[in-house]
Amino acid sequence: MEKGNVLVIGNSGVGKSTLINSVLGEEAARTDWGTHGTTTRLEIYESKDGQVPFRVIDTIGFEPNYLKERRAINAVKKWSRDCAKKGGENNRIDVIWFCVDGTRSKLFPEDIRRMTRAVAMWKSVPVITVITKSYSVPDREKNIEMVRTAFDRQKPFRDNLKEVIPVVAQIYTINDNAYAAPEGIPQLIDATNALMPEGSRASAHDLAQFVLGRKRVLAQSVVGAATAGAVVVGAVPLPIPDGAILTPTEIMEVNSLARIYGIDRKDGSKRFLSSIIEAGTVGLVAKSIIAALKAVPGINIAASVLNAIIAGVIVAVIGESSIYAFEQVFLGKKSMEDTDWIKKLMDARISDSVLGKAKPILEKLSGSSDKKEIQRAVLDLVQMIIGKQQGSEKIGQGKDQ
């Protein structure tokens, strides 16, 4: 299969490099903060493992300055003319991503006007407008409509717009216990692949495997952020009787993970998600974790540190278990109607293995109150527990086959 090519254009600082990294699944494009951007010439990126079904061509970022803007537009036009003269697989554009900043929606009309001018030679190439930094959920529909209105004014080019997709390319931390979770990346990959010429389009199976891998990486970032928040919330010298103090953190975590896997858009998801959250707040999972960690012998640790560890482990286990559950539903192996399976899964995640795994970590943290160190230790602990259990599940599945 010959890979297709995606041209990415947008203002400096709009988040093109971060978007490319999120789509490719590796740190291929250099990222930075600010309005001056980091890409100084056109670059072509593709994944080293070959799993991404298309190449991504990153352009010079547009600058809020006439001369620099002309430099960016002329660079794209020159590359366009060179492409028209040459043959070769890298010289055809199949899809264009227009990137606009979701936090600066008033600039959409002017940004889109400039971008259509820069790619005027590709009169029939389909366009996806990517609204980056779409942190405000209530504003997304309004922003989509603003993009469509701006395109309607570009008469020679308006029929090229095929999709408008709001994205959060990487987790955006608002404070210790609030964040905007990654969204829109799987939808962008699906939409881009669908617009590729038939010979450059990934098969449904290959695309599903690639998208599943991207979902998993994005989901892991949510678990990390939620665990960090739980460590902060739990670091108090008061006892955590049943884990209910973590309910808001868990609800945000589970709902964010559900959106990554598209679970929140399916019928019957509310009861399914409630079963997960209930298990983590007042169910056996939370009580088992609290009892197991408090029962570890020979540990002299401050109450606030122990509570931070307990809170972090609860939220991390709920997150990792949710990822596993959502993947099973995504792959069609489990149904959201089977809430009994969810309860058994959540309970099975914590067993006597917690005691053996937790003791050395608790000993290591006995003299520490650094929340970042606690967070790292908690995630390591949960990975050891979950990883061992998943390995056992695979062995068991092999025996059944």
Q: What would the principal axes of the Cα set say about the shape? A: elongated
CATH class of the largest domain: Alpha Beta
How much strand content do the residues show? 5-15%
Number of strands: 8
Rg from Cα? 24 Å
Determine the CATH topology of the largest domain. Rossmann fold
- What profile does the largest beta sheet have? 6 strands, mixed
Q: Structural class per helix/strand content?
A: alpha/beta
How many discrete domains? 2
Distance between the termini: 33 Å
Helix content: 40-55%
The CATH superfamily of the largest domain is P-loop containing nucleotide triphosphate hydrolases
pLDDT < 50 runs, ≥5 residues: 29-36, 388-401
With helices defined by DSSP (H or I, 4 residues minimum), what is the helix count? 13
CATH architecture call of the largest domain: 3-Layer(aba) Sandwich
Mean pLDDT: 77
**Reading side by side through the largest sheet, how are the strands ordered?**
2-3-1-4-5-6
